[in-house]
Design goal:
This protein has 377 residues and is of the alpha+beta class. The chain has helices spanning 41-53, 96-110, 120-123, 135-139, 148-152, 156-163, 170-178, 194-208, 212-224, 276-287, 294-300, 361-368, 370-375, and strands at 58-65, 68-75, 91-92, 230-231, 246-248, 255-257, 272-274, 304-307, 310-312, 317-320, 326-334, 337-344, 349-355, 357-358. Helix 1 (41-53) packs antiparallel against helix 12 (361-368), helix 2 (96-110) crosses helix 9 (212-224) and helix 2 crosses helix 11.
Length: 377
């Protein structure tokens, strides 16, 4: 979720490997219609075990494949009790929250309550320094808003300990972002920033006149019957059976139990708790058009290039895999939790993979490869 680069403290928060080449303009998606090979369970198991050897206490992958479910898990959910990690454990899904937020926004567009190409300042007067920043720019990371997480986590462990139990208002987070100049011209280029989805949360609450938690609950969680999905902010605990999170310290590989945290620095950009089953159900519903109109799904799938194998739509990532398949979803990182959640173009195969660590670029790179094994075979 954080947009810094590998090797700079919390770079591994959300955007390890998100320090990607930015390119302006809209890109057409590749066909991505090659038939799906069966998931390579052997390769997936090897990747999970490799992640453990690199410092993750546990790692799992759940694949929902048109009625067939694959469960693979290695290691522990809790280093103290040694309880085994399972694919049913609840986890902090980080920036996967952004896709939930974008879906709510597009539902509001469907209802005629907001327009994608209207200035954010029309709805939130005076909030942003440039009236050219539109709702679409915010949802596609093309606003130029500075990512306040870079300030909060310039030093990863001290930064985390300073905000672990803190509760911010949206306005306080925006003040942190707006203390810095815009990073680029609105609408020009993709530049990942959590501040964009703080703005989205503010828009949802202004338009619906209710907390963003209510929007998630009534518009997504209840309709899809997501039993493990919660917006717990401002609480700092996870209900039910969950995996603990372990953030790697900047030196000596020491692991910090980071389970207890408000994730208030992210909120509508990254504070959801969910499970692999729920996230797979959600993403499948998104691409099948079960949550928005066909017109708004088309808007969600208008891509801005990130690099040669990635693009970003509205709160949705596209990954182009080596076998010619494109998959759609999001990555997520909060302290102690790495998540990959993607689905096929048809929504018939979805995978969520997870490691209960962060601030570990080696594990991140290993788990990133689970997409190839799950969708290319």
């Amino acid at each position: 979720m954080v947009s810094t680069t590998v090797g700079t403290g919390v770079a591994t928060l959300g955007a390890i490997v998100l320090s990607l080449l930015t390119v302006p303009a809209q890109a057409a998606a590749p066909a991505g219609t090659a038939p799906l090979a069966a998931p390579d369970r052997t390769a997936l198991r090897k990747l999970l075990r490799t992640a453990l050897s690199q410092g993750a206490p546990g790692a799992f992958a759940r694949i929902d494949d048109n009625g067939t479910v694959h469960h693979l898990a290695e290691g522990v959910a809790d280093r103290s009790t040694k309880r085994a990690l399972g694919t049913g454990d609840r986890i902090r899904v980080g920036s996967v929250t952004k896709t939930f937020t974008a879906v709510v926004m597009l539902q509001l567009v469907d209802e005629g309550r907001i327009k994608l190409d209207t200035s954010v300042n029309t709805y939130l007067p005076g909030l942003l320094p440039d009236k050219r920043i539109t709702v679409r720019h915010v949802l596609s990371h093309r606003s130029g808003l500075y990512d306040h997480a870079n300030t909060l986590f310039a030093r990863s462990v001290p930064g985390f300990e300073n905000v672990r139990d803190k509760v911010f208002t949206y306005r306080q987070l925006m003040d942190l972002s707006l203390a810095k100049p815009l990073t680029g011209k609105p609408g020009a280029a993709y530049a990942y920033s959590n501040a964009n989805f703080v703005v989205a949360g503010m828009l949802i609450e202004k338009i619906t006149k209710k907390p963003v938690a209510t929007a998630y609950q009534n518009r997504i969680i209840k309709p899809l019957k997501l039993a493990d999905t919660f917006y717990v902010h401002p609480k700092n605990t996870i209900p039910g059976k969950y995996s603990r999170g372990y953030m790697t310290a900047d030196s000596a590989g020491r692991k910090i139990d980071s389970t207890r945290q408000t994730v208030s620095w992210a909120q509508s950009a990254g504070a959801l708790v969910s499970s692999a089953k729920d996230v797979n159900t959600f993403l499948s519903a998104v691409v099948r058009g079960k949550l928005t109109s066909a017109a708004q799904l088309k808007q969600m799938l208008k891509w801005t290039p990130v690099n040669s194998t990635q693009a970003y739509g509205l709160g949705l990532r596209r990954r182009d895999l080596s076998c010619g398949i494109s998959v759609y979803g999001h990555t997520g990182t909060v302290q102690g939790y790495y998540t990959w959640a993607f689905t096929s173009k048809s929504g018939k195969r979805s995978m969520t993979s997870f490691a209960n660590t962060s601030n570990n670029g080696t594990v991140y790179a290993t788990m990133n490869r689970t997409l190839e094994s799950a969708f290319c075979g």
